[in-house]
Structure formats: structure tokens, C-alpha cells
Amino acid sequence: MRRVWGFLAEYSALLILGALIGLAWANIDYASYHHLIEYVIVDHAWIGHAHVDAEGHVHRTLTLHYLINDVGMAFFFAIAGKEVWEAVALKNGSLRGKKALTPLIATSGGMFGPIAVYLGLAAAMGSTTFDAVSNGWAIPTATDIAFSYLVGRLIFGSGHPAVRFLLLLAIADDAAGLLILAIFYPSGELAPEWLLLSAGAAFGAWFLFNRLPRIMDRGKRAKTATTFCRKVLGFWPYLAGACLSWYGFQEAGIHPALGLLPIIPAIPHADIDFGLFEEAEHHQTDLLNHSEHLLKSPVEVVLFFFGLANAGVQFSSMGTATWLVLLGLLVGKPVGIFLMGWLAAKPMGLGLPDGMRMPDLFVLGCVAAIGFTVSLFVASVAFQTGPVQDAAKMGALFSFFAAVMAFAAGAVCRVEKKA
């Protein structure tokens, strides 16, 4: 339990604290809470929410909410993106080869199952309801990595193959979620030409500070150029490139919280993937892992403010979107993961990891139904500020009940805990 609490404190404690404070504050004094979260830091700024005046001129307003969700959360998604990129791109990446096929196919069920439940129920409620809530279809597709991993370890034990399966599924779910955000939830009118700035910044950082130094040091025993870039310049050139890439995303109309992702492959990295947030990565000295270590504490603070700024909804705001999100997660996720996982393991003959049973797959699907962090984020971009957004956020918060469902399913399915 001490190790479990250490994991929770490392990745999620501040997020939970921020969410609880935001939820309590909004229900005690919503006016003061809303005033703080939407506080205008700078009007007519270079970054911020875009507004069009009567004459058609566009200006931006930097609010505290924008600073948290669009700037600060970019670093959170950068860490998630780093894990996804390693899993996909490196030779021994956990999402490469036949070993990842069953989790990948199960992940597709964990995406399409919630969408089917959400949109199906919304359509059954009539066209008026469907039109009001349909844009939130992606909210229940999310899986909160930290909380699902925590609950998975409590149910299965750290040595159970289902925990590894869950991590693979969570990585793939993250990758799909990032694509959904980029494609289906633009932050404004699309101006794709600005993505050339992001691509140019990533390529420039890679070539000038990664590839070129190695070319210059070719055949030399003393790697002076590479050593200079690594020890003197460090991550600063990549941070500059990341800022340009982020700005390109903002101007392109793609959610800027994803703006640091193009820079990740440009950073020097070790050609080994230990897995999602594995402790062994702390001993890696490559710049990519070193940068992740530097970001860890700031991102924890960002997650505190993210919880504070996004979980502050009134209990009275519960509505149709609440139950659609909740049923999408609690029903669509487990059923979708189980059905597609069974299809991959049995008819397709891909099998499950040694020591993992089909009932374990259903329990794992229940664990993956904890949406929380990313579900809250998607809710904040899927709907305009108002009752529907608040109702959807309440559904994301209530997804913690998936943990209770998972423990009950584990008991019924007689999960054998393995240390």
C-alpha cells in the first residue's frame, strides 16, 4: 500500500486535490469561482481566446482558463505523447509487432463501444437532444492512465499480465485520443498553412541541434559538437522550437494543447522503451527522458490547476449529457473492450498473454472506464461554456464509479492477484 500511495502521490494527488477544491468551491460560491477561472490576464494578447469585433478584426484574450488548458496542458500532452511515440517508433516499442495486436484491437472496442452507446442513446432521445449533445461523442472514449493503472494494480497485482495489457491499451487509447482532438475538435477556423511553422520548427530543431552535430562529429574521436549541444545548449533549442510549434497550432485552429507533439521526435533519445512511466526510465540520460524528468514537477502543478479549473461544476448541472457520458464509459468501454478483445484472441487466433483469462479482459475493461482527466479535457473543448458542458464534465467526474464496478467485477470473476 505504501508503494501504491507513492504512485498515486507522484502522478495524481495534486490533480485530485485540485478537482475536489474546484468542485467544492463551485457549489459553495459559483460566482467567485467563475470570476477567478475566467480572469482576464491580458487583453489583446498574442495568445488566448480569439474574438472577432464588429469590424471583423480578430483579437485574443489571455484568461487564466486558457493559460491552464491551452498552455499548461500542452506539457501534460507532451509527456503522454512522448510515451506514445516511444511505444510506436522505437524498435522494441510496446505497440510494435504481434504482441500489441490484441491490445490494439481491444482498444478499438474501447473507442467505438462508448461512441455507439453515447450516440445511440442520444438518438433514441430524439433529434433535439441529439443535436444538443452529439458533439460530445468523444468524451467517453478516454481512459485516465494514472487512475486506471492504480486501480488495475490494486485488483490484479503488479505482476499480473493484465496490468501490462492495460498499459498497452492506455497508450493506444492516448494516441487515438490525441488524433481525435486534432481532427474533430479544432479550436477555431482552420488555417492549415500555419502548420508549416510547426513542421519547420520541429525539423529545424532536429537538424540543427540533433542531426547536424552528429554529421560534424563523424569520424572524430572527440564528439565536440554533440557534446556542446547536449551539455551547453541542452533542451533550450527544443523549447524554443516547441514555442514556435505551439504558436503554429494556435494560429492553425488546432487545439494548441497538442502543439508540442511535433517537437518530440526531434529530441535526442535512447533507442529503448521500458514501457509507460517505468522506473527504469529515471536512469536514462538521453535528452528526451531528461526533459521528461524536468517536466514532471511542473506538470503535477499544472494538473492541480487543471483539476481546479475544470472540475468546478455544480451538482445541479447534472443532465442528459451526464448520463450519456457515464453510460458510454461504464457500459460502452467494458463491453467494447471485451468483445473486440475476444474477437482478436479467439476467432483471429492472436491469443491473450500467458496467465490472462477472458474474464480478466472484462475486468480490465471496467478499469479502463475511468475517464476523468482526458474526459474532462475533451468536455471542455467539445461544448461551449454552459449547462451542457457542465453536465458532461459531471459525467467525467462520476466515471470514478468505474473503479467500484471494477472491484466488484474482479470479485465475481475471481481474479487471481499476482504480486
Share of helical residues: 55-70%
Radius of gyration: 22 Å
Strands, count: 3
The biggest beta sheet is recorded as: 3 strands, antiparallel
Provide the residue-averaged pLDDT. 88
State the secondary-structure class.
Answer: mainly alpha
Quaternary arrangement of the chains shown? Answer: single chain
Separate helix tally? 17
Describe this structure in a few short sentences.
Helices cover 65% and strands 4% of the residues.
Give an account of the 3D structure:
The protein has a three-stranded antiparallel beta sheet with strand order 1-3-2. It has 17 helices and three strands. It has helices at 2-11, 13-28, 30-37, 64-89, 101-124, 127-133, 145-156, 161-184, 195-216, 224-233, 236-252, 287-310, 320-345, 358-367, 372-382, 387-398, 401-412, and strands spanning 40-45, 49-52, 58-63. With 419 residues, the chain is mainly alpha-helical. It is globular and about 65 Å long. The mean pLDDT is 88.
List keywords for this structure.
mainly alpha; three-stranded antiparallel beta sheet; 419 residues; 3 strands
Write the SSE topology.
Layout: H1 2-11, H2 13-28, H3 30-37, E1 40-45, E2 49-52, E3 58-63, H4 64-89, H5 101-124, H6 127-133, H7 145-156, H8 161-184, H9 195-216, H10 224-233, H11 236-252, H12 287-310, H13 320-345, H14 358-367, H15 372-382, H16 387-398, H17 401-412
Helix pairs in contact: 1-7, 2-3, 2-12, 4-8, 4-12, 5-6, 5-8, 5-13, 7-8, 7-17, 9-10, 9-11, 13-14, 13-16, 14-17, 15-16
